[in-house]
Sequence to fold (461 residues):
Amino acid sequence: MLRRSAAVFFPLAVASLVGCSSAGSVLQHVPTTNSASVRHGTSPRNGAFGKIKHVIVIIQENRSVDNLFNGFCLATSNCANTVTKDPVSGQVLVPVPLSAPYSPLHNHPNFVAEFDGGKMDGFPSNPSVCNKPGNCPYTSMAYVPATETMLYRKLATVDGILSDMTFEAIQGPSFPSHLYAIAGQSGGWTASNHWTASGGDGNCGPNQPKNMPLIDMTTAYPGVNRGYYPPCVDFPTILDALTTKGNSWKFYSGGSNFWTPTQGIQHLYNPNYQPNGNFAQDVAKGQLADVTFVTPYLPSQSDHPGMVNNSMDGPNWVASLVNAVGESPFWSSSAIVVYWDDWGGWFDHVLPPADHYSKPFKGSWPSWLGNPDPVEYGFRVPFMVISPYARVGVIDHTPRSFVSSLTLIEQAFQIPSMNTLDQYEPDGLDSMMNYNQNPLPYTPVGGYPVSPFSRVRSPHK
Fold:
């Protein structure tokens, strides 16, 4: 399915001119130059081909860059673009553990309210849902203490690289974001409508409720809801392209329809679907597909606000998956992409790519019937690449969306562009990789072994 004639935009960024200050300090923010021009050397276009033979995409849940990587620095002059004071309201962010018993609301209407036509003034008033009865006074104006994210920070320091300018491909929660993860879109369109940006836990089985919103694509960014329809779509995915090419793939999932997008695509839907097995055990057996997607087995492993039992569950989970590959013979030819599927309602100070006034990632800004595309993009999400070819020792500031992981797969396995959002990404993560360097050895970062999957409740969205 052809994508509407479009492209990507560079956000009006705000950066911190800081040293390695602690996340509890109030950091100064000033406008920056175009981050797309800030590169750390060059890597050959399509350099992944022949070097990367295994791509593993691990998708976590619901965190912004300011929330999860606040104050992250590799050196005094090499820090991620984060702040602990909202430049709009002046409100100082508070430390909140990963296991806090609440979740900021993060459906499409919440994005619209927080974005507020580019004013970025809706974060302090964004409501939350608590895991206990009564009033829920918790705030979106928060960051996770660095002590709880040390495993993530180690992965981004010794074995990989962090991008602090990756935007969610869509302004909404997990279900449409996971569709973008495998297809670069959240559905097709009929006339001026588009499956998108809010709500919906469902699949292509019979008797599904009409709970997936459509956005009227003739409306201005960030779009107006047109109505609700069953959560089942049908369009090509990267999985189909891999099958056609003769490459193997596997999608590991805990079974929730939020995190298993194949069940929301008609031609991939399997009424007898059962959650897949243990990724780490398969790697240990020498069974690693060419392309693998992994979503959490247990909600507590996902970092999803309000679902985390122990703050170390998510970091330990991700580290154990990465360690399984890093300590295997597959390491030398692998690229592991880790990202968080949406911003989760949390504060983030960088204005998302919103309209034709923003500078593009590549080409001209996405459009629909001559108007700015109301669907792309959302707020920043954390995005890491762990690989023997990663540019370890830097932070990547190249504006992109998480759909760049699809472009990496296309380059590594010589698959043509799907002509969806993948065609507008700046590169196949070339700015985060150096295919000319000698492959780096893997340094284990801790993380408990992955326990066998046990079925638990579906997550609240």
